[in-house]
Design brief:
single chain; mainly alpha; MetI-like fold; 13 helices; 2% strand; globular
């Protein structure tokens, strides 16, 4: 028999929801509304006033070649972070699901990076891969491998991708591990009795049953790459060298707080939000059809 919670007072559910609704309105909807409003104005950086310009900020963006460069950098960066991050997390989850001895220790060590703040992640990876003092960079130099993310665009992209994946991999690992543990062992054992190889069992049984988890994590990781990697990029490369790691969210920051062009920054924020919403809708419209719930 299904059990349902019955509230004795009609206003109690609304009171319980009120804190979360207040946080959402104050820290999400209110800033989004401000960005939309700001995108229609040309503002003086020193508070001298503002002028309504309509869609001029948007038109200027679409006529700016550097904005298109930032867009393609974001596409490459987000695809690398999402695809490699999910693949590595799934591999670790499969390995953790098979561990018998020290399983708790192994899982705890993988989960730890999620507790580290993004800014701290950036500092850690800068110390490891700094051409002058980084332990990993020095070791690469001893092997004859040239590494300088301050001058080489490819090295800088590799650095921010690795740091972003490391920060998010614990989150992906937790969901994949939970999904693996929810799969009935009887299905895998039946396939093994039928002579299916480990790879065949994973590809034909395990991975299809993980498709809802994979689809959810794909959306979360794309949103993470678009929005939540700002601190990592700011600490490690600051969008450089040149504009090789200048993703859209970092370009919003530079336009507002370095160029003091708040109208253009607001327009970029609105466009970035629309891109993420459109991407999410496309994923639900087309990729969701291949998900087996």
């Amino acid at each position: 028999m299904e059990k349902r919670v019955v509230f004795t007072h009609k206003t109690l559910p609304y009171l319980l929801l009120a804190p979360q609704l207040a946080i959402t309105l104050i820290f999400f909807f209110w800033p989004a509304g401000q960005a939309i409003w700001q995108s229609f104005f040309l503002e003086d950086a020193f508070g001298g006033g503002k002028e309504f310009v309509g869609l001029d900020n948007y038109i200027a963006l679409f006529n700016d070649p550097s904005y298109y460069d930032s867009f393609w950098v974001t596409v490459v960066f987000s695809l690398l972070v999402a695809s490699i991050g999910l693949a590595v997390a799934l591999l670790l989850a499969v390995m953790a699901d098979r561990v018998v001895r020290f399983a708790t220790t192994y899982k705890t060590l993988i989960i730890w990076p999620y507790a580290v703040a993004p800014a701290v992640v950036g500092v850690l990876w800068v110390f490891m891969f700094s051409p002058a003092i980084g332990t990993v960079a020095v070791y690469l130099a001893q092997l004859g491998i040239g590494w300088n993310p301050q001058l080489n665009a490819n090295d800088a992209m590799i650095l921010v991708v690795m740091a972003s994946i490391w920060k998010q991999i614990s989150y992906n690992f937790l969901f994949f591990l939970a999904g693996l543990q929810a799969i009935p062992r009887s299905l895998i054992e039946a396939a093994a009795i039928d002579g299916a190889s480990p790879f065949r069992r994973f590809w034909s049984i395990v991975f299809p049953l993980l498709s809802p988890t994979t689809f959810f994590l794909l959306i979360i990781n794309m949103v993470y790459a678009f929005f939540d990697t700002f601190a990592i990029i700011d600490i490690t490369t600051q969008g450089g060298p040149g504009s090789s790691t200048n993703v859209l969210v970092y370009n919003v920051y530079k336009t507002a707080f370095k160029s003091f062009d708040y109208g253009s920054s607001g327009a970029q924020s609105v466009i970035l939000l629309l891109i993420v919403v459109a991407l999410t809708v496309i994923q639900f419209r087309y990729i969701d059809r291949k998900v087996q719930y």
